[in-house]
Design goal:
- By secondary structure, the protein is α/β, with parallel strands linked by helices.
- About 45% of the residues lie in helices and about 15% in strands.
- It contains 33 helices and 25 strands.
- The strands form six sheets. An eight-stranded mixed beta sheet has the order 3-2-1-4-5-6-7-8, with helices on both faces. A seven-stranded mixed beta sheet has the order 15-16-17-18-19-21-23, sandwiched between helices.
- α23 crosses α33.
- It is globular.
Length: about 800
Amino acid sequence: MSLRIRKVAVLGAGVMGSGIAAHLANAGIPSLLLDIVPPNPKEGERTDSKAFRNRFATNAVANLRKQKPSPIFSSAVLDLIEVGNFDDDMGRLVECDWVIEVVKEDLAIKQATFAKVEKAIRPGTIVSSNTSGLSIKGMLEGRGAEFRKHFLVTHFFNPVRYMKLLELVPGPETSKEIVQTIHQFGEEVLGKGIVYGKDTTNFIANRIGVYGMMRTIAEMQKAGLSIEEVDKIFGPAMGRPKSAVFRTADLVGLDTFIHVAQNCYDTLTRDEEREIFQIPAFLQQMVKNGWLGDKSGQGFYKKEKGADGEKQILALDLKTLEYKPQQKVRYESLGAAKDVENVRERVATVMKGGDKAAQFAEKVTLDALAYASRRIPEIADDIVNVDRAMRWGFGWDLGPFEVWDAYGVQKGVDRMKELGIQPAAWVLEMLKAGRQSFYATEGTRDTYWDIQQKKALPVPENPRTLRVEYLKRGNKKILGNDSATLWDMGDGITLLEFHSKMNSIDDGIIDVMNRGLDETEKNFRGMVVGNDGANFSVGANLMAILWAVNSDDIASVAKMVEAFQNANQRLRYSPVPVVTAPFGMTLGGGAEVTMAGNAVQAAAETYMGLVEVGVGLIPGGGGNLMLMRNIFGPFAADKDFDALPFLKKVFLTIGMAKVATSAEEARELGLLGPENAISLNRDFLLNDAKQRALGMANAGFRPPRKTFFRLPGRSGYATIDMLLYDMQLNNQITEHDRTIARKLATVLTGGDTTPANLVSEERLLELEREAFLSLLGEQKTRDRMMHMLEKGKPLRN
């Protein structure tokens, strides 16, 4: 990075401003969060006090602790945010390397803010605006040459922590070095996906996304579809988020949605589809009624209690503007797509159906695809920026041109002609040149059709990006089965990939864990355990376990449990370094595999926990031992060490099935150690883990020594059980809950031992197996497991 960013100022402490400051803190970057001095003091208030003058920024930081979903990885990161106000603290901008403006979306206010910023910053400071649509030319009116050279738009999406997209829009005079610095910082430090837009209304994602939503609204009225039907069609079946169209509008806020659409209508006077952005009468009426979505308690949907006292979600009838119970949505095309896992095939299945839903999906989608094609090069130079903007900013599984590829480019063009839809001329030129798809694979990498050069070019990616797909294309498979594969990552490192359903642990995975270690120890230098799935692993396959138990085949379960424990111990004590790379849901057995490694390279968005208690069990793959090892650290065998306070932390973490909501929180729970590393950009996770394994191997890795524990035994068990007895007496837990907790206490306190004796890892694993298998014999445990499966919960423990 040519210019180092050590501290950032965020001007404006609203939802977006505070969210940006929070995510900077997540990344370990200190920030100065400023807002206006409150304009209307209460009678008797000391207007010269910092508490009063910094109130807006102070309250914004306090609200960060309460927001759900949380914008922060841990409350500890908030110490990195300082607060202040525009009147007193603009002079402190000299401390900052980057100033981000996030004030009201009003050109005059932004111009006045930048005039003050220009006077306060030191030479070379980067300044950016988080505007969602105002022109750079207008915002920079009156600013000097140096200011314009260091200025650009950095458009974050809300919620900042969770939305990957960061749109960069350089001005005509912005230095290339400044753009490169923010690109690298955004991608590698903040973990964002970078796309380049142009200085046009609403840039890329909002321009295409809002057009798609407005076109959907217009067409649904012609087709006579309800909002629940539209959301069912344009949800996961079409590779979109579950929030689909109208639930998304409720989440964003109808006032915000209308503002963006109106901005398009007012400013896009040359857009051939300008009229589609005109706000329908029913939307205007909803805003007048105060039906703004989640922020007002009702929008397109409304929650209320039914006659039976149960909560129900009502849907708005757009003809009458009255709420009614949702109708079940059933269409043959949606049913056919339901079990299609490959998103490209699923989208094509819906669009090529013959029913009303398929016809609607096809018409709206082809219209949006054609519109997107006609916006290049107006809003972006290439299809890659457009596709990434929609995937990262709107949560689509496929961008517009990826959807078109799935449907078939030529087929799409032919169908558009039948429907009277006009694609861009460059699409027809591409087909004429013999290129039949927007994207293709050449060797191990993806290429895209570049419109300006009229040829295929490699899809640009950061060198740190590594995907399992690249290893597949390179024929790097070493061994595997239906549940897991061992790949050669290069440089002497292997990758153990899980690919069972939901990456749940089964016999196949355990088999490849062992055979993979055999191969790695013989011919390689280290191993990474990771994958490219939706989640790292949701735990053991409960269905298989329950089937065996109900078939009186407890012996096979006992064999699997011991095999999984042994495989995890092999990961820990292998002569080659093993680095685990968790992300997303990392639960039960997935957490155990993670903790078994010699080092962890975790994605920031890792949701980790030992959750077996939820189905009436305790961890069975070594999780109790692993968490104890993490919490006790080097003092596990110390004679002067009082184990009980630390056992309490372990007991509560497991017994309450606590799940960390970030990798940082997993550290705080002891599921990860302070020495474990975190990757904010998920795209870099496998490569970061590989580099970690290489570093350990190059540094002369030696496996750790096994841990011995000095545990309280029966006296500690009695202390815990007394607390459990009181909880049961006060109806805080059930009798079965107490049974589970007592089994857990037996394991954690070391069974029949005393502090005079050391307990080995092998003994703790034996106690764990006994407790796990005995709980499987409980009818209430089996009932819980069955209930979990019937509810369609993840097959995890």
